[in-house]
């Protein structure tokens, strides 16, 4: 190989990172950007209060439910081909949603976005896992994690700006040029060979994973509006767990499983899934309460509330790129993941000291909390993404990538529903207080629960990572 050829391959690797990061931003951003636009969309489309949640839930259901299938399809088609199909499909679905003139069409477009995101997300992570090695792997996953960590906050910021100055439809239209530019750049991504099919398609596993994840995500979403005492909620959650248990049994006996159980047997990979799931439970509740607190208690406009989260996004970038990315290979993953979880927990605990009359609230409370949670998020996402895919080959790369993304989706859905319910219950217990004081009591109670979840995540991750000297090895 000549020096010029080697330099070209190196340049194409970093181009791969840029293209995959742009796609990751789309997937993560669309989990939150529509939240800010929803009131305007509801008014414009005459959407009923009982149906509006489908603009959020339809995306989460198809995205979370189809991720494992998307990981398998990505391996069969080839990760680059699947990645490009996912980008173009996501762009088309976004354009359809932006042009919607009826609630049903918007809901269908959001569901279609989730379908293509379920193909796009594992394909992108698989491309990174198979392209980068050594110290470059740490830098690449640091950038990728930074985009993922900042994406949710960026979604809230962009949603506020676009809704106020361009209209709610641009919260969907904005995806089109980004996806098309990423797809155009995808031609420079190094190609990979499709793994090909091995045996018959795991139809049973596909159906069980789809219905199981969909039932869990929908159950968590319904808990937000119906409360945890609802029989419908518990039926959905119990049914989802039963279906996923059946999925595990089927995968253990199938010759060509959708999710080979060996993917889950490595201690490091299991720790990554535990850490990222519980992190997303807490952090999505944190974003929810930051949005409510700044607008309903401090009186910020939607744009100002969104811009406040820039601090969190910048801290996440620093945690992912400057700390985690540069430390890859020099320290054990536990040395990044555990302090990251503890830093995020400290940020949430700081906010439990708020009350309705707190003075200098931004400097004394919001600023350090946003920095700590952002740094923690960045320090956790980079090493967990690397651990989740380390040593994987063939179909297992797509399966591990899909499982990692599924863990995030389930955590986000559970966190939003669980912590919102905790906040509502705590607010209702406050008697003879102003509405603002009651609301702040609810927020601080829920944030205390979120901090406890992060501390539990740190303890469980330590049990899996610290005693284990094994690292993931290539599967033979």
TrEMBL record:
UniProt cross-references to CDD domains, sorted A to Z: MFS_MMR_MDR_like (cd17321)
Membrane topology term: Multi-pass membrane protein
Membrane spanning stretches: 14-38, 53-70, 82-100, 106-128, 140-161, 167-189, 201-221, 233-250, 271-293, 305-324, 336-356, 362-389, 410-433, 445-466
Taxonomy, superkingdom: Bacteria
Gene Ontology CC entries for this record: plasma membrane
Location, primary (coarse class): membrane
Cell compartment(s), UniProt: Cell membrane
GO molecular function, a single term: transmembrane transporter activity
Keywords assigned: Cell membrane, Membrane, Transmembrane, Transmembrane helix, Transport
Domain Major facilitator superfamily (MFS) profile: 16-470
PANTHER family, per the entry: BLR6921 PROTEIN, MAJOR FACILITATOR SUPERFAMILY MULTIDRUG TRANSPORTER MFSC
Protein's name in the database: MFS transporter
Organism the protein comes from: Jiangella anatolica
């Amino acid at each position: 190989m000549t020096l010029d050829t080697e330099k070209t391959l190196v340049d194409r690797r970093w181009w791969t990172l840029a293209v995959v990061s742009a796609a990751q931003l789309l997937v993560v951003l669309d989990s939150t950007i529509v939240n800010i636009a929803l009131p305007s969309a509801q008014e414009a489309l005459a959407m009923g209060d009982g149906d509006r949640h489908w603009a959020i839930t339809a995306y989460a259901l198809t995205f979370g439910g189809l991720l494992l299938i998307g990981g398998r399809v990505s391996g069969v088609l080839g990760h680059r081909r699947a990645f490009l199909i996912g980008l173009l499909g996501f762009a088309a679905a976004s354009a359809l949603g932006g042009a919607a003139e009826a609630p049903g069409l918007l809901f269908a477009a959001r569901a279609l976005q989730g379908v293509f995101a379920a193909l796009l997300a594992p394909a992108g992570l698989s491309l990174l896992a198979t392209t980068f090695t050594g110290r470059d792997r740490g830098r690449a996953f640091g950038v990728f994690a930074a985009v993922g960590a900042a994406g949710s906050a960026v979604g809230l910021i962009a949603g506020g700006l676009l809704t106020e100055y361009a209209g709610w439809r641009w919260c969907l239209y904005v995806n089109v040029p980004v996806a098309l530019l990423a797809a155009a750049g995808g031609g420079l991504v190094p190609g990979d060979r499709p793994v090909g099919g091995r045996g018959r398609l795991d139809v049973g596993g596909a159906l069980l994973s789809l219905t199981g994840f969909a039932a869990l995500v929908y159950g968590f979403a319904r808990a937000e509006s119906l409360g945890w005492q609802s029989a419908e909620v518990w039926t959905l959650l119990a049914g989802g767990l039963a279906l996923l248990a059946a999925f595990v049994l089927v995968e253990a006996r199938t010759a060509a499983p959708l999710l080979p159980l060996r993917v889950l047997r490595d201690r490091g990979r299991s720790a990554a899934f535990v850490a990222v799931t519980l992190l997303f439970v807490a952090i999505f509740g944190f974003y929810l309460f930051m949005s409510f607190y700044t607008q309903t208690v401090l009186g910020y406009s939607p744009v100002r509330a969104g811009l406040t989260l820039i601090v969190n996004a910048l801290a996440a970038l620093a945690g992912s790129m400057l700390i985690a990315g540069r430390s890859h290979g020099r320290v054990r993953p536990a040395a990044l993941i555990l302090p990251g979880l503890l830093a995020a927990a400290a940020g949430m605990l700081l906010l439990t000291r708020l009350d309705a009359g707190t003075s200098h609230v931004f400097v004394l409370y919001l600023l350090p909390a946003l920095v700590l949670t952002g740094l923690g998020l960045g320090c956790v996402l980079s090493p967990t993404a690397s651990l989740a895919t380390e040593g994987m080959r063939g179909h297992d790369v797509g399966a591990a990538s899909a499982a990692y993304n599924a863990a995030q989706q389930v955590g986000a859905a559970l966190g939003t529903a669980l912590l919102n319910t905790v906040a509502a219950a705590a607010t209702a217990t406050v008697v003879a207080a102003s509405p603002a004081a009651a609301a702040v009591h609810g927020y601080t109670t829920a944030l205390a629960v979120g901090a406890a979840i992060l501390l539990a995540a740190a303890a469980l991750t330590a049990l899996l990572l610290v005693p284990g000297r094994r690292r993931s090895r290539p599967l033979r």
